[in-house]
Amino acid sequence: MDAAPEPHTGWTFVTSHARVLAAIADNPNVRIRDIATHCRLTERAVQRIISDLEQDGYLSHTREGRTNTYRIEPGKLLRHPAEAGLSVASLLSLLVQDETDRARKPVAR
Asked: CATH for 16-104?
């Protein structure tokens, strides 16, 4: 098991909403607990973010038993006027590693 990442203070370039969306894009069946650990958020914060993303049409989910399968709307445009015309897919292309890239380049720790 990997050690917990170091805590972070101060500002960052990527919002928690973008981090959660990227975690879901990486694994559409990911558990909220795992998103929270990966993004360094509480499970409650992740639930709130998922609710925001669903309410605004960026994300939907289906439930099978105890498993949620998330579906991202890649063509949906980003909300901020500075990103006018950019899609969710454009954002995710920056945040989510392609499986072939992941196999070639191990994550630095």
From this structure: 1.10.10.10
